[in-house]
Amino acid sequence: MADKKTFYITTPIYYPSAKLHIGNTYTTVAADAVARFKRLTGYDVMFLTGSDEHGQKIQRIAEEKGVSPKEYVDEIVATIKHLWEVMDISYDKYIRTTDDYHIDTVKKIFKKLYDQGDIYKGSYEGWYCTPCESFWTETQLVDGKCPDCGRPVEKAKEEAYFFKMSKYADKLIEYIENHPEFIQPESRKNEMINNFLRPGLQDLCVSRTSFDWGIPVEFDKGHVVYVWIDALSNYISALGYNNEQEKLMEKYWPADVHLVGKDIIRFHTIYWPIMLMALELPLPKQVFGHGWLLVDGGKMSKSKGNVVDPEILVNEFGVDAVRYYLLHEIPFGSDGVFTNEMFIKKTNSDLANDLGNLVSRTVAMVQKYFDGIMPAPKAKEEIDDELIKLALQIPKKVEESVNKYQLPEALEHIWTLIKRSNKYIDETMPWALAKDEDKKDRLATVLYNLSEAIRFISVLLASFLPTTSDKINEKLNVELISWDSLASFDGTRAGSKVQKGDNLFPRIDVEKKLAQLEEIRQKQLKEIEKANQPKMKPLKSEITIDDFDKVDLRVVKVLECEPVKKANKLLKLKVDLGGEVRQVVSGIAKYYKPEELIGKYVILVANLKPVKLRGELSQGMILAASTDDDSKLFTATIPQELPTGSQVR
Ligand code: MSP
């Protein structure tokens, strides 16, 4: 027997830097629908997904949490795998860039590229944020400041290896022009050529020394492989390229499609092909860049508090309602929008009304008029032809749409059949036929045709809404679920028993559910707020009451206050300490105008050894509380008048 045709599809590997949201979920759900469809239509499929686990950001998060980077990624990867289970993702392999075999491949690739002169040592110039210990590129800065903490950054240099991208640019332009299907949609192709390739490619920084959570460069200790060589190689290391895993390169490479979000198309259509050219490997057949799912007109972000959690939706509405929305609402190559209201309304109209009603009405009528036993078709009429003809046409249309990754269009085709079937019920009026004993054969035919149309729908939906398809098969006792069975309109078995069961998609009370979801969101926001509260600095070591007693704290009244010349942080205060006037210099000029302090009762460390600050004598220290980053500060004050010199204990 001839070998099966193969199909290799990948998703990007996800950063385990936070819990995934519904937007991230999109790529994987779309890839899953395509992978299932290809299996159904006879392909030997390899569907790869995974996680991209190295880098400075992961290292920092782990440090903040007080765990090792590996412990941290293990924990998040478990949540990602759990999410894919919840979303019914049928991946064949899950790759982690911390897997030994992947590390092996990357080390060998890096060495080969270096040995053949494609990688050279140079220095990387960027912006450095000292408190965060991180390098940033000009474009990563936010208002010229560190994108993580918002503090000022300094120019800095670091030794690094670079990949000579420019060497392969002409060859790549030629390849892209000769293979119009390589970058899809077409608009993305023009963007890559005109905005990046033609103006000239900069060499890519491929190693770093300022952090160590990465794959070491074996021949130069202190360097770790930086981002893209590590991440992109996953597509071939998973197939056993240069490692001990099962050798699958011959079978599956080149990939049929890398499905990626629009933000990473450049890496997949420029850096990755150039890497492959340097490794003398064929390029993937296609890189498909999909649009984004937007919320409130923009990106989902934790800080905006508008992150939509797919698991909450699955728990409330079932996995297929979520899959349907994702697969239907992101049009070919452009962005889609998510709102709870649109989601609920779409679930009600397309799933509960169109699909759910068609199935429940049909099953209910077979039960009512034929005791739940599927009748055989006996009295065909002309009106049936339109439905049958349409059903027989739809599979090919769906296949064409999926092959172009136009998934919303594929679903639209299936819905044409669903809607036509509902119309067929209205046209044939089975309840009227049931009243007339002479029309029993006609009634049997109508219900058989409806059931067969539903069988078609179920097979067609199997890749998109697998759980729903299984439920339909159970209700109608469908046995023929192969793609080939859609070649003729006679696969429903007369004599089989149908079962009513629960509604596929119960109708949702829009207002009530919206209110519930809003309640959940508010709860989440509170949790985020709590989690974002700055961590308290660790307490100092314990002291005895005698130690404390050494510090003499007294109430003083501020008599005078003025700035210290040429020291913009300092204020000079004259304070009354039980009749004695003291001068204190305090670094609080950023927070108080001198006149705001005059007349206030504050607390003085009265027995602190006097010092000179900027030439001014300071006899003690005023107590104040501040945030860790010094963005806020308040002096400790006594709310009401108290004799100056009173002790604070
Ligand atoms: N680690 C890289 C990919 C390396 S692939 C060799 C990465 N990871 S990611 O976790 O940031 O993103 C994973 C995928 O989620 C990307 O395809 C990205 O475009 C997609 N999405 C992130 N937010 C999205 C939406 N709001 N909507 C749709 N997809 C989105 O990038």
What does this structure look like?
It is a single chain. The protein is an alpha/beta fold and about 650 residues long. Helices cover about 40% and strands about 15% of the residues. It contains 21 helices and 24 strands. The chain has a 6-stranded parallel beta sheet with strand order 3-2-1-11-12-7, sandwiched between helices. Strands 15, 16, 17, 18, 21 and 24 form a 6-stranded antiparallel beta sheet that branches. Helix 10 (about 265-280) links the parallel strand 11 and strand 12. Helix 13 (about 340-370) packs across helix 19 (about 510-530). The longest helix is centred in the middle third of the chain and has 31 residues, at about 340-370. It is globular, with a radius of gyration of 34 Å. The termini are far apart. The mean pLDDT is about 95. Bound molecules: 5'-O-[(L-methionyl)-sulphamoyl]adenosine.
Itemize the secondary structure elements and their pairings.
Elements: E1 6-14, H1 22-40, E2 44-51, H2 56-65, H3 69-86, E3 93-96, H4 100-115, E4 119-129, E5 134-136, E6 154-163, H5 169-178, E7 183-184, H6 186-197, E8 204-205, E9 207-208, E10 224-225, H7 228-232, H8 234-237, H9 249-252, E11 257-261, H10 265-278, E12 287-290, E13 293-294, H11 310-317, H12 319-329, E14 336-337, H13 340-370, H14 382-403, H15 407-428, H16 430-433, H17 440-461, H18 466-476, H19 510-532, H20 545-549, E15 553-563, E16 571-577, E17 580-586, H21 594-597, E18 601-605, E19 611-613, E20 616-618, E21 621-622, E22 624-626, E23 633-635, E24 647-648
Helix pairs in contact: 2-3, 6-10, 11-12, 12-13, 13-15, 13-17, 13-19, 14-15, 14-17, 15-17, 17-18
Residues 12-15, 23-24, 26-27, 52, 231-232, 234, 260-261, 263-264, 292-293, 300 line the site of 5'-O-[(L-methionyl)-sulphamoyl]adenosine.
